[in-house]
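SAMPLE LOG
Freezer: B-3
Tube label: C17
Construct: single chain, 152 aa
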Amino acid sequence: MSETNIHAESNRIIGAYVAKQEAKKKALTKTQCRDIYREAYEAGLNAGKDADTPKFIVGDAIGLSNEIDFSKKTYILDGLCGFAWVNISPARGAFVNWLKAQGIGSKGYYGGYEIWVREFGQSVDRKAAFASAFAEVLNKYGINAYGQSRLD
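STRUCTURE (predicted):
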């Protein structure tokens, strides 16, 4: 083996060892994963409750007018209807493994790992606020995540 090859091989081995040691330091414990999830969930709930949503009144109109007949069933909707979720990408690491072990989330259709927002009924505004706040907490801990939403 030439001297150049020996140096390249030793650098590769040392680099792999250092990377493995760094990964061990950064690996989250199960308790840390649980605490991060709880913090993210609480942040999501608070953001969803505080979200500003447009109000819509849905009911039967009187004849062909714009007036609503309140003697019939009437609904006040909390914004538009839709879905939201948090995507963690790449779908690996201690936190994603912990989520899988807890039965939380699933493999994302377009990649990553997804946690769907089940709170706040059908309000896309509240769900999107939840997802964004949840992802923000995960990012704070070095977990690459982002909130997504779509109308129904």
